[in-house]
Specification:
Length: 230
């Protein structure tokens, strides 16, 4: 493979150096993908789209593993005593008056305590389970840079470019890309590898990333990426 790879993307072709590009997979956790998880309880039962990205993420994982490129996984969640969960987050995702949420972060659910580190539901789905040598970053927020060591990890690995997938597009994926862009990383979201709970949000969420000549980054497709890497 050439040292620099260029793929078709919006708003214009995305070029990334193989020597400093990582895959960043956001929150492919049971709590966001499986029935009775946090996402299902919080956001309604439209899990179709988030389930559908799992095999697509497996395909980029395989491509990156074959090329021995760095892979970073994130997980959203909190300490068992919830001391790292801001009250705003706890409150608005609870069964407060005016909300429909029946359970709050830390409550027992069918997959364990919701969004609590160490619980079954908090971990990554079997298909995308991290392998030895891949980095797993636990994050208390929606963005993966806030109160984590992700920036230090990426700098330590010499990463400049990020290929991004995961769940959910409207929430943690695009929040993280906006944070990454501010820190100087060149990001490209793979559209078949990102999904959320509200189909109406997918196109506008991704459009806002590449709008205005790449305000926050690039958006490309799985065939474009796989064609270039294999
Ligand atoms: N609610 C929602 O869409 N997402 C989250 O709470 N977390 C992630 O997106 N990972």
């Amino acid at each position: 493979l050439p040292k620099n790879i260029t793929i078709e993307a919006k708003p214009y072709p995305y070029t990334f150096p193989l020597s400093s590009t990582a895959l960043l997979l956001i929150d492919l956790q049971r709590d966001f993908i499986l029935p009775s998880g946090f996402g299902d309880i919080q956001s309604g039962t439209n899990l179709t789209a988030v389930k559908a990205v799992v095999p697509n993420c497996v395909r980029i994982l395989q491509a990156f593993r074959e090329l021995e490129l760095p892979i970073f996984h994130t997980r959203e969640g909190h300490l068992p005593d919830l001391s790292d969960c801001p009250s705003s987050k706890l409150k608005r995702q609870a069964s407060a008056p005016g909300t429909n949420h029946s359970k709050v972060i830390g409550d027992p659910g069918e997959l364990g305590r919701l969004l609590v580190r160490g619980e079954y539901g908090h971990d990554i789905v079997d298909e995308c389970r991290p392998k030895l040598g891949e980095v797993v970053v636990d994050k208390p927020g929606k963005g993966a840079f806030w109160n984590t060591n992700l920036l230090e990890e990426l700098v330590g690995w010499g990463i400049t470019h990020l290929i991004v997938g995961g769940v959910t597009t409207e929430c943690c994926v695009t929040t993280t890309v906006r944070e990454a862009n501010d820190r100087g990383f060149e990001c490209c979201i793979i559209e078949e590898c990102a999904a959320g709970y509200n189909d109406n949000f997918k196109v506008p969420s991704l459009d806002m990333i590449h709008w205005s000549q790449g305000l926050f980054g690039f958006v490309s497709s799985l065939p474009n990426l796989l064609k270039a890497l294999t």
